[in-house]
Amino acid sequence: MERVLVLNGPNLGRLGVREPEIYGSASMADLQESALAWGSGLGLAVDVRQTDDESELVGWLHEAVDARAHVVLNPAAFTHYSYAVRDAAAQVTTSGLLLVEVHLSNPAAREAFRAHSVVGAVATGTVAGFGFDSYRLALEAVAARLRTTTQP
Ligand code: DQA
């Protein structure tokens, strides 16, 4: 079974408490439960993690490369300024693995500083603005891409 690391950056452990009008009332534990269920429906072994620490997130991206795991990544605020996360994300896609950038909100419709993602240019694709469904759509995109690339 193909593995997918669903990696979440800073403040996403506060889901449910943090700005619920933007991020909703469900928690990271709820997201984890949903993502595991979506993954099992799609035949993907999903592992959901969250960290507030840039170096830990970079380490998980290195782990994805070494373990040949695909990635669904919500870099949170790192999206907008972390060249370290971008460079680690680039190693995932340049090694032939999929990396889908996801956002709960639509950053393009918010403050100007959120309009630019330093990660987007090295991602396979981006899904933003659909709440938890951004993750479901990203997992579906990974499964669909894997189906087409494994077909003759
Ligand atoms: C976010 C959007 C980012 O701009 C913000 O810093 C986050 C969450 C999202 O999922 O909508 O922390 O990545």
From TrEMBL:
Keywords: Amino-acid biosynthesis, Aromatic amino acid biosynthesis, Lyase. Coiled coil: none annotated. Its EC number is 4.2.1.10. GO terms for molecular function: 3-dehydroquinate dehydratase activity. InterPro entries: DHquinase_II, DHquinase_II_CS, DHquinase_II_sf. Homododecamer. This is 3-dehydroquinate dehydratase. It comes from Cellulosimicrobium composti. The lineage of its organism: Bacteria, Bacillati, Actinomycetota, Actinomycetes, Micrococcales.
